[in-house]
Amino acid sequence: MSGWQKIVFLTGATGNMGRVTLAELLARSDRFRVRALVRPEDRNHPVVRRFTGRAALEWVWGDLTRYEDVLAGVTGADQVLHIGGMVSPLADRFPELTMQVNVGGARNIVDAIRRSGQADHTALVYIGTVAQTGHRNPPVHWGRTGDPIKISRFDHYAVSKTEAEAIVAQSGLTRWVSLRQTGILHPDMWKIHDPIVFHNPHNGVFEWITVGDSARLAVNTCEDAVPEAFWRGFYNIGGGERMRLVNHQFSRHLAAALGTDMQASTRPNWTGTRNFHGQWYADSDRLEHLVPFRSETMDDFTRQLAAGVPGIVRLLARMFPGAGRRRMEKLARGPGGTLHWIAHDDRARIDAYFGSRAAWDALPAEWGDFVYREPSREVCCLDHGHDADKPIEECSTADLKAAAAFRGGRFAGDAFEPDAPARFACALGHDFSMTPRLYLKGGHWCPTCMTNPDSYDANRARNPFFAQVWPDTD
């Protein structure tokens, strides 16, 4: 504690999750004092205008890529909520900048905590992403932490978040945690007009969470009641059973809130069938048990969304459905859109998102011919090659050897310490160093292969662990 309040350093305060987290922190100003990192060019941002003047808030004008700015926020802080960073779709358009912000920012935070002598005092909450485990189309749509990291092709955001997570998990800090964020439901979703909307398969799945519940979780991790068992772990953020939807079900929720109809504004073959991300979680209740945060449902979200959509928008959608379809088709035919790839015969992206040009040709062009699938709701977990339920403190060299062999590689050491780097070889012969905690509980594997989809076919043939999520057909 610092005096009678904890000092919380918050990044990403102007983003969707960050702004709600900031409001939640300030609502508990009897317990928390907030330092919020905001870029100088955002001094007139609505979030800044809204909260400036609060006694419990201090703005830190700076950038994640500047160590000095991060150090100013970290010094003396009791906890860091690292929510900030570049996200898709912007992150995938500027991959070099994404790496600088997401990876460099995480490294700056860890370095600042350690160099300021706070490694045993300052807690670090890192927000990861469901994108780290890539597309998990049925029948492998049930996931848990420890499943293999798998990056969808062209997903620079997922690469950056995976590398940043490794920095945090191997930081040597006494208290760190990685919370892998799922799809966030927020009131401004109706404003999203980007070709990425065509990348998410209709028959894929998501376990959603509202932005309010995500913010509540982040702030609840700052409370003194958080159990020690929570730290040094990986968790999937999800809303639980009531928030598990097939994507075509969610599209109907969203369309209804906008006063329109999904079938009226799109066609089934405008949307990819693979290479996105999303899963239902077999383990998201574990996080709720340790740090309770769930309070909102899908119905709550759709009511809030409908209330926030201007009446004129809903009226125009009902009166002129053809205009909505033309607008969406123009988006799909524009740069980054699926129909743009088809028109320009972009085989790399066609193969990634559809399997092949022939596979796209075979897709139905009308909704009447589309098959809406309902994947199994019976939990079915992947094999991790060892007892995945065993606490890391109870694991041994035998567990590491079994897990490495199941990955088609080997454990090259002879001792086991959860957070001491160990030597491994991967299925393709690369030697690397990684902590057993990150390897067993985080699902990380060879750093050379893990973030390189070009290696996935070769790994499938030699790595049974990975082959479970990279089948011959999808």
Automatic annotation (TrEMBL):
GO terms for molecular function: L-threonine 3-dehydrogenase activity. Residues 12-184 form the NAD(P)-binding domain. Gene3D superfamilies: NAD(P)-binding Rossmann-like Domain. One of its GO terms (biological process) is L-threonine catabolic process. InterPro entries: NAD(P)-bd_dom, NAD(P)-bd_dom_sf, NAD(P)_epim/dehydratase. Belongs to the NAD(P)-dependent epimerase/dehydratase family. This is NAD(P)H-binding protein. It comes from Novosphingobium aerophilum.
